[in-house]
Every structure is written in C-alpha cells, then in structure tokens.
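Hey, can you fold this one?
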Amino acid sequence: MYGIPKELNLDVMAGSECTQIRVGQFDIQFSFGEVDFALESKIGLFKNKVEIGAWEAGKWPDCVFYEIMNVPVESVRTQNAEAIIITLESGLSIHLCDNSEQFETMKISISGGDPWII
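Sure. Predicted structure:
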C-alpha cells in the first residue's frame, strides 16, 4: 500500500537464519535474526531466476519453503518500491511483494525499533 521506503535498512539480516515459519489463514510470518516479517501479500521463492514455490493468502505454502530454514542470508535488497529480495547462501531468493494499492501488505519489525507497515 505504502511502498517499501528507501530508508528501510535490513542489513542486520546478513548471516542470520530462519528457524520457523508460521502460517495463518491470511498471513505468513517468519524471522531472520532480529527481523520479523508478517506478510499478507504474495511471496515467491526462486532458484536460478525460476519460481519454484509461492505463498498467497488463503493457501498453504509450497513444501519447498522448508528449504529456506537454517540457511544464512547472503544479501537483502529492494527492487523499486514494490519488492524486497532476500538472497540465501544456498542460491534461493525470497521475493516479498507489496502488490496492493488499497491494503497494507506487510509488517517488518526490527529488534529495538518501531515496526514498518508497508
């Protein structure tokens, strides 16, 4: 809804790992170290630029999401104001999309700070 702000800095995620994925009826939540994500918009999981898995509200995530667990983050970057791309050391990348003009799509909380509502 608001787009991804340029000042959002997720560098603290480098080297951290996801150890748990929580799935609700209309959201998915996970953490990488000090950064917690709660998303209500589409997430794509890519390997070699090919989508190998996805999650959307109201659906169970593809079983390939298991492969993001316990793998260190290599880098995090934003693509325009519409996507956050988390690249893991395994070569997988997680694409978090802000794809709604009307509704909030994600909440990002960094330990010790106020949450970012996107």
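Residues 4 and 81 are 5 Å apart (CA to CA). Let me know if you want another pass with a different chain boundary.
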